[in-house]
Design brief:
Distance between the termini: 33 Å
Number of helices: 13
Order of helices and strands: EEEHHHEHEHHEHEEEHEHEEHHEEHEEEH
Number of domains: 2
Radius of gyration: 21 Å
CATH architecture of the largest domain: 3-Layer(aba) Sandwich
Structural class: alpha/beta
Bound molecules: pyridoxal-5'-phosphate
Shape: globular
Helix content: 25-40%
Oligomer: single chain
């Protein structure tokens, strides 16, 4: 077999979407899917949201791309809104999550470099983390499936157990630059860090002048019911990577930092050809218009509670299959007792899109604009599929 024109690095499913409308996707033959995957936590506003679509259309016809060599009224305006809405004082725009994490890593290292401590260049990272697919971001994990065959990896990362404060503190030495973590792990299996862990990391960062770097590429941007997940903990990071939902489907990421943390990021230290171009900024502004309101975030919280409650009620009826529900807001995971990937495939064949994650978890990541009726439809269809799956398994 010759290699496929699309480099065959994905086990692509038979779902071949060509059109989307709200919470539904449609395949080439008109097959209809209930999309509770959202392109892996990207399509916050569902598909074809009129405000986002119009903003992109208008901007595409006005000015799509220039260069970061020129002034950016569009970038300044969007960065100002993000600064006003968060812990941050400054923003670097990227095209993806991995690039936002790369910028976060570089910012943390440059902080210590600028203070005359270039030896403080090691970030402590955590088991089951996912930070992207670039060389630095795969070097920041201990997941063999991401790293296999790509040696030599980059030095400067020490991996310890997630949510284990004692191990994290014990790993700090004179070379430590800070900590890099997802406050709610996504790919690793929808695991929110404990309050004690996050507070403990913040405390040691304050005491030893280290950088607390949050990767909120998946859990941020309204998905937990707060604008960013750190707000749940009452703890602010020094640096934060955002992406996925921030563009609502348009490729966009951002690295946010405090003035102090960005001390080393002076003219010439970093850059990107596309990052923050006018088209991306228009998409970002449109998504933020919708997401960053108290009413919308309350809606996410309410839908999250409804969905979680309905899933928790369903679990005892299928206790051979499901163990528990975890997560925050609309980043939910169902811990399974059987292979979650096989069940995700089974659901997909029945027109329901979800995503599997580590630790045998089925990820439920609906668009944040879902309504009660979608929650009901999802849980009813999930429950029916689970019943049939159990019958099929018993027969096999
Ligand atoms: C998806 C993801 C990334 C990588 O984002 P890309 O846009 O694929 O580069 C990084 N960190 C986390 C937590 C993610 O979920």
């Amino acid at each position: 077999m010759p290699i496929t024109p699309l480099m065959p690095v994905y086990p692509r499913s038979p779902v071949r979407p060509v059109r989307g409308e709200g919470v539904y996707l449609y395949g080439e033959q008109g097959e209809k899917y209930l999309d509770f995957a959202s392109g892996i936590a990207v399509n916050l506003l569902g598909h074809g949201h009129p405000h986002l679509t119009k903003a992109i259309q208008d901007q595409a016809a006005t000015l799509m791309h220039v260069s970061n060599l020129y002034g950016s009224p569009q970038g300044e305006a969007f960065a100002q809104r993000l600064v006003d809405a968060t812990f941050a004082d400054t923003v670097f725009f990227t095209n993806s999550g991995a690039e936002a994490v790369e910028c976060a890593i570089k910012t943390a290292r440059r902080y210590h470099h600028a203070k005359g401590n270039p030896h403080k260049n090691v970030l402590i990272t955590f088991t089951n983390a996912f930070h992207g697919r670039t060389m630095a971001t795969i070097s920041a994990t201990n997941q063999e499936k991401l790293r296999d065959g790509f040696a030599p990896l980059l030095p400067g990362f020490t991996v310890v157990e997630f949510d284990n404060l004692e191990q994290a503190l014990a790993a700090v030495d004179d070379h430590t630059a800070g900590f890099l973590l997802e406050p709610v792990q996504g790919e690793g299996g929808i695991r929110p860090a404990s309050q004690e862990f996050i507070s403990g990391l913040r405390k040691v960062c304050d005491e030893r002048d280290l950088m607390l770097v949050f990767d909120e590429v998946q859990c941020g941007y309204g998905r937990t019911g707060k604008f960013f997940a750190y707000e749940h903990y009452g703890v602010e990071p020094d640096i934060l990577a955002s992406a996925k939902g921030i563009g609502g489907g348009f490729p966009l990421g951002a690295c946010l930092a405090t003035e102090k943390a960005a001390a080393g990021m002076v003219v010439g230290t970093h850059g990107s050809t596309y990052g923050g171009n006018p088209l991306a900024m228009a998409a970002g502004q449109a998504v933020m218009d919708v997401v960053h309101t108290p009413e919308f975030l309350d809606h996410v919280t309410r839908m999250g509670e409804r969905l979680r409650g309905a899933l928790e009620q369903m679990i005892p009826n299928h206790d051979h299959l499901f163990e528990s529900v975890r997560g925050l807001g609309l980043i939910l995971g169902i811990k399974m007792k059987t292979d979650s990937r096989a069940f995700v495939t089974y659901l997909r064949d029945r027109g329901i899109l979800t995503v599997s994650a580590g630790d045998n978890v089925l990820r439920v990541l609906p668009p944040l604009v879902i309504e009660d009726a979608h929650v009901t439809e999802f849980v009813e269809r999930l429950s029916e599929a689970a019943r049939q799956y159990e019958v099929a398994q018993a027969a096999a």
